[in-house]
Each structure stands twice: as C-alpha cells, then as structure tokens.
Amino acid sequence: MTGLLLILLGTWGGLIAFIGPYFHYAYTPDSPWTYTTGRLWLEILPGIATLAGGLILLASTLRPTALLGAWMAAIGGAWFVVGGALAPLWAGAAAPGGPVGGQLARAVEQIGFFAGLGVVVVFVAAAALGRLTVVAARDVVSVASAKHVADGRGPTSAKPARTGILRRVTGRKTPAQGSVGS
Fold first, then answer.
1. Are 55 and 21 in contact (CB under 8 A)?
2. To 10 degrees, what angle do helices 116-133 and 63-86 make?
3. Do 24 and 85 fall within a single domain?
4. Cα–Cα–Cα angle for 52, 128, 10, nearest 5°?
5. Residue 83 pLDDT more than 60?
6. Helix (H), strand (E) at residue 140
7. 54, 58, 60, 64 alpha-carbon torsion, rounded to 10°
8. Distance between CA atoms of residues 49 and 87, nearest Å
9. Which of 66, 129, 130, 154 could form a disulfide with 60 if both were Cys (CB 3.0 to 4.6 A apart)?
10. In this structure, are 121 and 160 located in the same domain?
C-alpha cells in the first residue's frame, strides 16, 4: 500500500506544476506545460525520485531492495520540503516562481506543491522503512531452523532450538516447556 501511495504522490509532485494552471492552482509562470529549471530541480526530480522509490517498493521481493526504494522516496520527499530553501546555494538555479492567487490560494499552493507534499511523502516512506526494518520473531526462528538444517542436525533437532529462541525473544514458555499441572 505504501508503494502505491508513493507512486501517486510522486506523480502529483512531478505533474502538478504542468497541469495545475488549468485549475488556477499554480506557481509562476502560470501557464500549463511550461518548463523551467526551477521546476526541474524542485518538482520534477523529487517527483521522479518519489515515483521510482514507490515503484521499487511495490515491485521488490527483497528487503534490501525495498529499503532502497523507501529511502529514495524519503529523500525525494525531503527535497520537496527543503529544496526551495537550498536552491539559491548553487549557481544558476532558478526559483520555483511565486504562488498565484489570493492569500488562501497561495497558502494552499505552497502546501500542495512543496511543504505539505514533502511531509506526506516522508511520512509514508518512513512508515515503509519502519515496516521493513523490524526483525520479527518468526524471522529469527526461520534463521535458526535453516542453520540447524545446514549444520546437518536435520529438521527434527531444529524444533528445540526454535522453542529456545522463542523463549529468549518473547520471554514466554511454550506449552511444551510448562509443567504438567499448568
């Protein structure tokens, strides 16, 4: 689900500058499909990073690859937030322009184009990162089982090792370890 959300948010971030003027939701220049270097650095590239991160996260079957996708999206989201403040630091970088419309419209445009979009992207990517970095007890058990099988002790001797690992991880006794009367 997080991969799909990141794909949608990345698409929004990369395209809103080009289609927003149709709905009077724009930054200058407020004409549709107008390319500027400011749009490239501050909207298109972070949108592509977020979109690509979401695609990697959605398609990956390996945890390290999915982590790479989540980090790409998080960096893209962070760039939506801080890119405008950092853009004057490199030579020749154009600003994103100014929000168009009244006071309320300008605030909504700033949130929807940069700050709010970036915060939501970072939040969704962080949720994916958290989910991917947690080592569950069943992962520990499966590693111990695989180790016993690889050591030549066979699958029958792996069962007591799993019980011991579960007890160490969870702190609880399994029914087989409890007393007869309990």
1. no
2. 160
3. yes
4. 30
5. yes
6. helix 137-150
7. 50
8. 17
9. 66
10. no
What domain range is 151 assigned to?
Answer: 137-170
- How far is it, in rounded angstroms, from Cα 51 to Cα 8? 7
Residue 27: phi and psi, rounded to 5, are -110, 155
- pLDDT at position 93 over 70: no
* 148: CB partners within 8 A, 6+ apart: 154, 155, 157, 158, 161
What's the sign of the alpha-carbon dihedral 176, 178, 179, 180? Answer: negative
Domain match, 122 and 77 both: yes
76 shares its domain with 34? yes
Give the largest Cα separation in the chain, rounded: 79
pLDDT of 15-47, one tens digit each? Answer: 999 999 999 898 988 889 999 888 999 999 999
Residue 182 lies in a domain: no
> Around 152, how many Cα atoms within 13 Å sit in the side-chain half-sphere?
0
Query: 99-133: per-residue pLDDT in tens?
Result: 888 899 999 999 999 999 999 999 999 999 998 88
